[in-house]
Backbone:
């Protein structure tokens, strides 16, 4: 899997943003297309999270948005049980992480992906 799309739960979006503290209610997702062999960032996309203002089902809506945008890996706070099930169904690997910038989280995600 040389090029992969990795989604990060973020507050405003971008590589210099910090990870949000919640999955389903994160304001944005930053999706980074990266070459897993070289670590080269090919593309960065920021999307609004449809679950951010949802009355209910925020986690599932967020998971669906990540699937719709081709994410194969999610990095950030643990999703709830329904969102986790939706991500598993969509084939999105979950890497739990908090308290980091997107750049730091990307480095950790790449390390973990290389170990597989």
Residues:
């Amino acid at each position: 899997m040389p090029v992969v799309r990795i989604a990060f739960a973020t507050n405003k979006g971008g590589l210099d943003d910090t990870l949000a503290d919640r999955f389903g209610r994160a304001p944005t997702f930053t999706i980074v297309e990266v070459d897993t062999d070289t670590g080269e960032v090919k593309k960065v996309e920021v999307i609004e999270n449809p679950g951010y203002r949802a009355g209910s089902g925020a986690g599932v809506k967020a998971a669906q948005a990540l699937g719709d945008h081709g994410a194969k890996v999610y990095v950030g706070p643990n999703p709830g049980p329904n969102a986790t099930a939706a991500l598993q169904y969509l084939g999105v690997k979950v890497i739990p992480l908090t308290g980091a910038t997107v750049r730091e989280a990307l480095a950790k995600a790449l390390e973990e992906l290389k170990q597989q």
